[in-house]
Design brief:
alpha+beta, 7 helices, disordered N terminus
Length: 296
């Protein structure tokens, strides 16, 4: 999925250091006060002093403060004039409207969603995102509310992603196929990629994402738990049988090489049967003493 990103781009605003504007305002005010004091009886001097006081107010009207990790979007009569990212005391045209926006990293803890995975099983999934505003012009002018936009797009991306992967490996999945439970690193990379594509329209970059909750839906959780337990038992039994066969093979080979006892095929079969019962049983075995022979 791709998004069109040919809309408005952020540009640098024409601003100045606020301390310089403050000094100019103070200088004008001081000069106006001196003229007013010395020429109090001269109407012309008084008028000039009044103009200086008015002029001193213009630099003060354009002052604003930016904290670290903040930016200010300037608009003049509804037209975008640029973005100021310089921290500290700043000055811009007093007629411009100034809107502050945070550039700091933000967390979004998405709500737990109920989705069907690739195999159609209902699962519950939730994720936490770390994102920040990259392009202030896009964030403010291309979407109505960029925070709500990110929240909705995050839920949509999580739903779409969960439907692309199976929750866990099964008989109908290919060997090595990525699953939600076993391949979370790959799943998270796909989630970040999709979120970045979706949020580019709003000038937002997704820094990181992590799956915070992943489970089968309650209505099938018990059934899937029994299935996992059965698969674990089968896997364990398989390993036990493989180990037992290997031990029996080594035992027969050792007896044959050392000429401890000569066994015919029937005695070997009986020995293999007894050893496999002892090694593969999940309960303690009870020895039986045979006072006779194998044939009577």
């Amino acid at each position: 999925m791709s998004k069109q990103t040919n809309g408005r781009r952020e540009t640098a605003a024409l601003t100045a250091n606020g301390y310089s504007a403050l000094l100019v305002a103070l200088a004008l005010a001081v000069v106006g006060a001196l003229l007013m004091y010395r020429g109090i009886e001269n109407p012309v001097v008084v008028g000039i002093a009044a103009l200086l006081f008015v002029a001193a107010g213009l630099p003060l009207a354009g002052l604003y403060m930016l904290q670290p990790g903040e930016a200010s979007i300037l608009t003049l009569f509804g037209r975008y004039s640029g973005t100021d990212r310089s921290e500290g005391l700043r000055w811009a045209n007093p007629l411009t409207m100034k809107r502050k926006i945070s550039l700091r990293a933000r967390n979004l803890n998405a709500a737990t969603l109920k989705v069907n995975d690739k195999r159609g099983n209902p699962v519950e999934i939730a994720a936490a995102l770390v994102w920040r505003v990259e392009d202030t012009a896009r964030a403010v002018f291309e979407v109505d509310d960029f925070e709500a936009y990110v929240r909705i797009q995050a839920e949509t991306a999580i739903r779409h992603l969960a439907s692309q992967f199976a929750y866990d490996e099964g008989d109908d999945t290919n060997s090595g196929e990525i699953t939600l439970r076993a391949g979370q690193d790959e799943v998270v990379r796909e989630l970040v990629k999709e979120l970045q594509e979706r949020c580019a329209e709003a000038g937002v970059t997704v820094v990181d994402a992590k799956i915070t909750h992943l489970a089968y839906a309650p209505e099938i959780a018990q059934v899937m738990l029994r299935r996992q337990q059965a698969e674990a038992i089968i896997s364990a039994r398989k390993k036990i049988v493989q180990g037992a066969v290997s031990m029996v093979e080594e035992a027969l080979k050792g007896l044959s090489e050392r000429d401890i006892v000569v066994l015919d095929d029937e005695r070997k079969a009986a020995m293999v049967s007894n050893l496999l019962v002892v090694l593969c049983s999940d309960k303690d075995t009870q020895p039986i003493v045979n006072a006779g022979t194998l044939y009577n």
